[in-house]
Amino acid sequence: AATALRGEGCCSAEGAAPLVGPGFGDPLQAGEPSQWRRGRRNALVDMGAERSASIWRFVEAGWFQCLAAFCIIANLIMVIVALDDQSKEPYMFWPNQGLLCFYILELFSRIFYFRKTFICGPPTLVAWNLLDLCVVAAGVADQWVLSFVSDPSASAQMVIKGLRMLRVFRALRIVRVLLEADLSWTEEPRFQTFIGTVIGLNSILMGLETDIDWVGWFYLEQILLT
């Protein structure tokens, strides 16, 4: 009876797997209502004690999600710059190699962390994982495999262009980061006060711009926009 009163999911026997989820040391935060978060939480619960203590657990940490988002945005900027001016593409070679290595590290870290749930877990989780797998595989084929082709044929050139177009799908990974991130801090009074202050400051600057001619207004607006 005592065990029943503890509620579903509590451990009733010594040596049972520790609880995984909000409030029990899991990277998922409390108050995560979406189906995506629930699916990830259930996948983590199924993994048990051994995987919940895995060294690969950092892939679900907030700092790693922010790092992944930064790398994706930087990669997209480089792709746009290279498409706009192909003369700058050689300067993007080593940064692209570094970002591809990061994507590979992230992919294998997720595989080691989720194990069988990487491809046999909740449908949404599996869909995002397969997208990551395809994008990384396309990057490896484009930057490492086909780069050794000295004189590609017409069909090979079409394949190379197709693989490079897949880089655009990396932008979809930003959506994944936003779905996984805990954005509850945006509802806190301190953040709301900060946003209100920025809006008020921007309104004042707009009024000053009409009376004072100064080149610095442009840079201040860029800072506020950021």
Outline the structure in words.
By secondary structure, the chain is an all-alpha fold. Helix content is 65%, strand content 0%. The chain has ten helices and no strands. Helix 3 (62-84) packs antiparallel against helix 4 (93-114) and helix 4 runs antiparallel to helix 6. It is flat and about 60 Å long. Residues 1-32 have low confidence and may be disordered.
Q: How would you describe the shape?
A: flat
Number of strands: 0
Query: What's the Cα radius of gyration?
Result: 23 Å
Q: Strand percentage, roughly?
A: under 5%
Task: Identify low-pLDDT runs.
Answer: 1-32
The SSE string, one letter per element, is HHHHHHHHHH
Total helical segments: 10
Question: Distance between termini?
Answer: 56 Å
Which structural category fits the helices and strands?
Answer: mainly alpha
Notable features of this structure?
226 residues; mainly alpha; 65% helix; flat; disordered N terminus
SSE diagram, text form:
Layout: H1 2-5, H2 35-52, H3 62-84, H4 93-114, H5 117-120, H6 123-145, H7 154-165, H8 172-180, H9 189-209, H10 216-225
Helix pairs in contact: 3-4, 3-8, 4-6
In brief, what are we looking at here?
This protein is mostly helical and 226 residues long. It has helices at residues 2-5, 35-52, 62-84, 93-114, 117-120, 123-145, 154-165, 172-180, 189-209, 216-225.
